[in-house]
Amino acid sequence: MTTLSMHESQTVHLPVIALGERDLEKRQIWAERRRHMEKQGVQFGTDGSRPLWRNKASSAALKIFYAGARLLRLDERGRRNALDIELATRTVSFPDLPLAFDGYRILHLSDTHLDCLPEIAVVGARLLADIEVDLLVLTGDIHGNQHAPLSASTRPLLQLIKAVRVKDRRLAILGNHDPADMAEALEDLGFDVLLNQSTVLVRGNQQIVLTGLDDVHRFFTRDALEAFLQAPEGFRIALVHSAEVADYAAAAGCALYLCGHTHGGQICFPSGRPVITHLLRCRHASVGAWGEGNMVGYTSRGLGVGDIPLRFNSRGEISVITLRSPSRPG
Ligand SMILES: [Fe+2]
């Protein structure tokens, strides 16, 4: 991709994935390795591989919970909860944010899983109808059910985002539910998919860097950490499906880390405390805003639902995050 486009906002779009021979080769190597990992019944984390039985056990427990909720006729309420999406707006100040990016608005979507409950796309589209942002980031788990075709997720996703006005780029990363083929499906929707890569957004003579990783919860490889180390200098934002490499991102100098994965618990105690977070590490970052060293992190509760189409004591969310520089004039 060599086309550079200039928008009213003076942002120059640099290519994410230059389609040079070397990049195509890298992409092919990534896809082959990812598909190989998908076929194995194990989870690859930062500390090695482990059997998937824990994930299977929690999926089975959720299905039992779902059967119980149906028996008690609580499923309709849980479904209504799942459709009660919050449009959350947040402002975060960074002392080292380049002034040209003061006021930069990022629409953060995560864990859309629209094949599991497609009606969420209709509710979400209504919330997004008049929204204008600089950047759209999608932090993985676009898909839900591995037996469903990818179009069951991508078609409602297109419906969800079609009314959003995005001035700059649409960036996406993959989650643990997304197969390798999702990368191409997202590119067909106009997303640039970051697979352990960085991209640069430029305004005038200033820039910010976004580093996007392939999922690190089930498909971790050293390339993920290498991407942090290889990223260009500057104000840096990490896009990772789960919070599980937050400490590595902070050590590498990222200022902001956007993720999802936990669904805010999806099924929570009345206090809002998640019953299960599916985090193997960095558990302090299971929901909402958190800190890691000098880095600010945000774990979205996600838009959709996985395993079962219900939520209790945890709202789905769409976030709009505004970056601020404390040194802005006036
Ligand atoms: Fe998810």
Describe this structure in words.
Strands 1-11-12-13-14-16-15 form a seven-stranded mixed β-sheet. It has a six-stranded mixed β-sheet with strand order 4-17-5-7-9-10. Strand 13 (235-239), helix 8 and strand 14 (256-259) form a beta-alpha-beta unit. The protein has 330 residues and is an alpha/beta fold. It has helices at 21-39, 53-71, 75-83, 119-128, 151-161, 182-188, 222-230, 246-251, and strands at residues 11-13, 42-45, 48-51, 86-93, 104-109, 132-133, 135-139, 165-166, 170-173, 192-193, 197-203, 206-212, 235-239, 256-259, 288-292, 295-299, 317-324. It is globular and about 60 Å long. The protein is built from eight helices and 17 strands. The site of fe (ii) ion (FE2) has 9 residues, from loops. Residues 111, 113, 141, 175, 177, 261, 263, 302, 306 line the site of fe (ii) ion.
Task: Bin the helical content.
Answer: 25-40%
Report the major sheet.
Answer: 7 strands, mixed
Small-molecule components bound: fe (ii) ion
Number of helices: 8
Q: Judging from the principal axes of the Cα atoms, what is the shape?
A: globular
- N-to-C SSE string, H for helix and E for strand: EHEEHHEEHEEHEEHEEEHEHEEEE
Distance between the termini: 40 Å
Sheet with the most strands: spatial strand order = 1-11-12-13-14-16-15
Summary of the model, kept short:
The chain has 330 residues and is an alpha/beta fold.
